[in-house]
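Lay summary. Proteins are chains of building blocks that fold into shapes, and those shapes determine what they do. In this project we predict the shape from the chain. Here is one chain we studied, written as its sequence of building blocks.
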Amino acid sequence: MPNSSLLLVLLRHGESEWNLKNLFTGWKDPDLTPKGIEEAEAAGQRLRARGLAFDLSFTSALIRAQHTLDLTLAELGQTGLPIVRDQALNERDYGDLSGLNKDEARKRWGEQQVHLWRRSYDVPPPGGESLKDTVARALPYYCQQILPAVLGGKRVLVVAHGNSLRALVMVLDRLTPATIPSMELATGVPIVYRLEADSTVESKDVLTD
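And here is the predicted shape, written in a compact code that computers can read:
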């Protein structure tokens, strides 16, 4: 893999306290579990093992992503790396579902309705965002802030959330509104993209070990 190619790494935060409890989290702000801390440290170790280092990082306004980034950078020996935090990279806002157990939500609204809110592209839960809404804020941020840094030669690490990162993967992997909702991003697993100068993907490597 040529070192001259442009580096962008995406990382979903480690397991959070509410992931463990099977709660809809959204813009709520629980921290990492002990397992989540281990996942974040392991992500840094995998990146280090491949000789990767960074010039700039981006994360959300939520503690689970920020803590994951801090732990990952500590493993890389890069604790002084510039960090840009922005709520454009926040998780999808689950509105009235936030803080509810997913099984309780199914009992309240029905399996089919909750599945529609979770897995459709453009149907938002009450008071919340659809995946389409999340894409509408995360993707412009990627195009205006993150991508120019990558194309300018900076090695960039983005630590965010399952749904905000789906927005970035959607454009990188050329997925459609029909295919993106079913794509899962594992917690604490770095996705290493090498980009061409025209911003298309040269290669993609998911670091599962």
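What the prediction tells us: Residues 6-206 form a domain with the Rossmann fold fold (CATH 3.40.50.1240).
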